[in-house]
C-alpha cells in the first residue's frame, strides 16, 4: 500500500487568513474560482462579514456584483423576491443566448410556482416513505462492498454512486446508464475554466445530448401515469408543452439539485468527522444524534455556496444603496459561518442546538424542494455507517471542484476501518 498521511489543511487556512486579512477590501474577489479550488474561501468571507458585510466588488472577474455575507442580510434578500429577483439568473453570469436554458429556480412568480408544483410530488412524504427501503438497501450494498485496509476514493465509490442511483430512480432513467446523469450534472455547473470540458462548444454539445435523450423519454411517457420526474413534466399542463430550451433548463435544475447537495454533503461529513474526531465519538455513543448531525453536516459543508439575485429597484441594505439591475450574491456559506448565529461556527458540532437554522437550503419561495430527500439519504448513510465502521479515515488532501458555486470534491482518498 502506498504511503499515506492524514488530511491536515491547517497551514492552508493560516496562509489564506493572512492573505484575506492583509488584502485591501477593493482587491477581494470572492467569486474567483481559484479561491474555492484552493480551499481559501472561508477567511475571505470572514473578512467581508467583519469589515463590509454588504460589499460591492467593482472589479470582479465576473463583472461588478454585491456580496451579502451576514446571516440576517441573506435572509432578508432571500425572502424578498419582489425586490431581489431570480428571473435573470441565479449564477454569477447572465447566460449568453446559447446557454439560456430557463428553469423554474431562475423564475419569479407566477411561472415559478406552477412549474415547481408540477414536480413537487416526487418528494411528497408518501413517496419518500416508499423510497426509504430502496435507499437503505443500496446504501448497505455499497458500504458492504468497500475494501478493507486499502485506499479508495470515497467521492466516486460512495458519494457519486449513491446519489446517481437515486437520480436514476427519480427520473426512472436506465439504471445501467446512470453515470451519464452525473456527467451532465458536472458539465452543467462547469465552464472551460474547470478543466472538465475544453470549450463552451463542447459543453453545449453535451448538454444537448442530455436534451435529446430526455426528449425521447418524454415522448415515451406522454399520457401515462407515473411518479418519476420525466412523467410529471410530460403530463402536467403547466410543463407538458414547454419548449426544448426550457425543458433542458428544468432537467439541469433537477439533475443538479438531486446530485450536488447530497453528494458533497456525503463527502463533507466524512471530512468533517476526520477534522473533529470527538464528534464522531459522540455519534458512536449516541446514534440518536444522527438527524441533528445531518443538519449540522449540511450547514458545515454548504454544498451550494451562493445564490444570485438581481435588484428590481434601488434598495438600501446594510447602509448601502443597491441600484436597480445590480447583481446581488447571497453567500450561504458565509451565513452558515456567522458567529452571531452559530457559535464556534467553523467547527462541526453534531449536537449543535440550532443546526437546523442553516441557510444551505435557502429561504422563501425558492427553498430547496428536495431538502427532505437529501436529509433522508444522509441520515440513512450515517445509520448504516456507524454499525459497520469505527471510522472512515481521510488519508490525503481531497481535490476540490474549481467553482465558486458548487462547494464540492473531485476525489477524497480514504481507508475504511471496520468494527
Commentary on this structure:
The strands form four sheets. Strands 1-2-8-5-3 form a five-stranded mixed beta sheet. A three-stranded antiparallel beta sheet has the order 4-12-9. A two-stranded antiparallel sheet has the order 6-7. The protein has helices at 10-22, 33-37, 41-51, 71-78, 111-119, 125-144, 154-171, 179-188, 200-221, 229-235, 244-275, 277-285, 290-301, 332-335, 371-388; strands at 54-57, 65-68, 84-85, 152-153, 307-311, 315-317, 320-322, 327-330, 389-394, 399-400, 409-411, 413-418. α1 packs parallel to α3 and α11 (244-275) packs parallel to α15. The protein is an alpha+beta fold. It has 15 helices and twelve strands. Helix content is 47%, strand content 11%. The protein starts with 9 loop residues before the first helix and ends with a strand. It has a single domain (10-418), classed as Orthogonal Bundle (Cytochrome p450), CATH 1.10.630.10.
Question: Which features characterize this protein?
Answer:
419 residues; alpha+beta; Cytochrome p450; five-stranded mixed sheet; three-stranded antiparallel sheet; 15 helices
Briefly say what this structure is.
This protein has 419 residues and is α+β, with helices and mostly antiparallel strands. Helix content is 47%, strand content 11%.
Amino acid at each position: 500500500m502506498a504511503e499515506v498521511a492524514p488530511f491536515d489543511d491547517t497551514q492552508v487556512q493560516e496562509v489564506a487568513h493572512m492573505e484575506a486579512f492583509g488584502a485591501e477590501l477593493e482587491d477581494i474577489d470572492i467569486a474567483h474560482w481559484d479561491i474555492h479550488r484552493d480551499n481559501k474561501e472561508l477567511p475571505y468571507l470572514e473578512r467581508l462579514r467583519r469589515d463590509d458585510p454588504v460589499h460591492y466588488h467593482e472589479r470582479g472577474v465576473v463583472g461588478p456584483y454585491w456580496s451579502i455575507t451576514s446571516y440576517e442580510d441573506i435572509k432578508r434578500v432571500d425572502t424578498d423576491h419582489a425586490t431581489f429577483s431570480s428571473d435573470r439568473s441565479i449564477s454569477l453570469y447572465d447566460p449568453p443566448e446559447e446557454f439560456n436554458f430557463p428553469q423554474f429556480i431562475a423564475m419569479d412568480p407566477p411561472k415559478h410556482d406552477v412549474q415547481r408544483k408540477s414536480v413537487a410530488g416526487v418528494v411528497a412524504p408518501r413517496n419518500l416513505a416508499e423510497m426509504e427501503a430502496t435507499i437503505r438497501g443500496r446504501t448497505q450494498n455499497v458500504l458492504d462492498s468497500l475494501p478493507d485496509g486499502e485506499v479508495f476514493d470515497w467521492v466516486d465509490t460512495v458519494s457519486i454512486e449513491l446519489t446517481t442511483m437515486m437520480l436514476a430512480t427519480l427520473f426512472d432513467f436506465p439504471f445501467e446508464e446512470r453515470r451519464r446523469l452525473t456527467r451532465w450534472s458536472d458539465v452543467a455547473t462547469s465552464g472551460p475554466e474547470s478543466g472538465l470540458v475544453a470549450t463552451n462548444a463542447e459543453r453545449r454539445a453535451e448538454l444537448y445530448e442530455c436534451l435529446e435523450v430526455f426528449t425521447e423519454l418524454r415522448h415515451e411517457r406522454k399520457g401515462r401515469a407515473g411518479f418519476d420526474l420525466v412523467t410529471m413534466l410530460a403530463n402536467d399542463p403547466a410543463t407538458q408543452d414547454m419548449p426544448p430550451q426550457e425543458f433542458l433548463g428544468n432537467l439541469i435544475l433537477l439533475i443538479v439539485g438531486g446530485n450536488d447537495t447530497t453528494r458533497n454533503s456525503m463527502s463533507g461529513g466524512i471530512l468533517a468527522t476526520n477534522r473533529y474526531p470527538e464528534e464522531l465519538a459522540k455519534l458512536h455513543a449516541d446514534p440518536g444524534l444522527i438527524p441533528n448531525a445531518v443538519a449540522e453536516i449540511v450547514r458545515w459543508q454548504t454544498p451550494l455556496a451562493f445564490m444570485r439575485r438581481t435588484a428590481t429597484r434601488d434598495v438600501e441594505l446594510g447602509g448601502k444603496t443597491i441600484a436597480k439591475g445590480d447583481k446581488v450574491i447571497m453567500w450561504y456559506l458565509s451565513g452558515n459561518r456567522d458567529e452571531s448565529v452559530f457559535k464556534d461556527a467553523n467547527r462541526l458540532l453534531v449536537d449543535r442546538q440550532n443546526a437546523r437554522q442553516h441557510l444551505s437550503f435557502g429561504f422563501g419561495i425558492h427553498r430547496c424542494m428536495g431538502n427532505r430527500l437529501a436529509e433522508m439519504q444522509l441520515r440513512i448513510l450515517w445509520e448504516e455507517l456507524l454499525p459497520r465502521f469505527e471510522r472512515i479515515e481521510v488519508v490525503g488532501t481531497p481535490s476540490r471542484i474549481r467553482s465558486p458555486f458548487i462547494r464540492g470534491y473531485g476525489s477524497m482518498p480514504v481507508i475504511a476501518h471496520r468494527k
